[in-house]
Design brief:
mainly beta, Immunoglobulin-like, 2 domains, eleven-stranded antiparallel beta sheet, five-stranded mixed beta sheet, 4 helices, elongated
Length: 503
Amino acid sequence: MKLSKNISLSQTCLASVIGLLLASSVAYGQSTTSSIFGQVPVQSGEKIVIRGTTGLTRTVNVNSQGRYNAPQLPVGTYSVALMMGGKVVQTRDNVVLNVGAGAEVSFSASAGASEANATKLSAVQVTANSAPPIDVSTVDSHTIITADQLAKLPLARTAEAAALLAPGAVMGAGGASSTTGVPLVSFGGSSTTENAYYINGFNTTDPFNAAGGITLPYGSIQQEEAYTGGYSAQYGRTDGGVISMVGKSGTNEWHFGGQVNFAPQEWRSSPQDTYYENGLPANPVAGRLYDPRSKNTSWESTYDLYVGGPLIKDKLFLFASAEKSYQDGTTVNSVEAGNSDHYKNSTPKWYTKINWNITDNSVLEITGASDELRTRGSLYNYDYSNNSDASFKGFSNETLQGGHMWSAKFTDYLTDSITLNAMYGRMKTYNVTQPVGYNPDLAYLSGTINQNPALNGGTPITNSQTIAELQNPKNNFTTNNLRASVTDVIGGEFNSEVHRPTR
């Protein structure tokens, strides 16, 4: 069990003055939220009302300097209204929040400052300047990728492929891949085993091999942050980069859809065969041929479905999605192996999120996700002279890798600036290998082509054993996470966190 506490309180007058002048929220570690802040004309009876597409409504006060700040808002699209005497004076619509970066929404005095000439200016879109100001509220280096960008950019449909858009991110060396077979990313030259993964603020990093982590179905990512350096110590347990995903949520309108991606074998180029270059073995199988790679075949398909909408308008929302990828093909191994592998792999994923606006000041979010890789196949003895399968040899190991998680996060806006957050969740990962056709009386033989023909009569000695090694068939790892924090956007932050992995 690992227990850690971190207390960081900004107590100097200078820090408070800077916070007031900037009027922006701090981007905290493991953040899945943002903020709206700005300046309004100083008048009595002013309030700011913020409404989101997920039904969340917040009312914040304006201070004596005409400034307001609404921290810890879930990412999404909002409308911001300046109220005076109970009436709308001005509005700003289509305010899009990016995770960890506040949006400034200010109001001018041109619309009047009294109830008599209160005017509603609707459909005014707030856009950033061509040269956005430097965000001095944080020292981290991160890149935000939105769902709109993911839908338009020609990327592989993985969170890791999106993270490669961050400066300093490259493919991991040596073909490093996650437990579900996805190529991993190296941030700033660090090892791929030093990265951390998060879904809606919950740590989903593989606790057994540190090989990736649970990720969302590609179409369910609302925003993804790729941290490359300078991030808060609250992430912890990582010396590399951080891939933090914020999943989509339901809104007041029902949406549903699906997608199919298909990559047939006929649209792929064939790899080249490999031949012996200098000399031949004592007993060549098919002359100079070493590996008939041109006979390798593969096809892939991915199916996506999603649905989202209100279970109770303005109160209770659901978003659910499922994705399943199939890889099917044949790999002809070298003459030393003497066989071909017919494989069938599937990668099922699902994601579900429930948002409950208990009151205007209290919100509950429940998240569930799963990411798995299932493999199976069969082996055939291969006729290299005729480039075709010969007799059936045996079944390959059946494997199940990946895991699933769930988390519950409660947010309570105690005041305009103080927010309580509490999260608890559990993750279970597994690396299961189930041998099929294992014969404990037979040894596994490899490199039979290299046998001395004087001792085997000119014919390599083989058997039907296809299992090279055995693993624990129930290799499971369970992680429990508890996190609580109270945040004050001016006075600082108090955090208490428990991270307890158990086998």
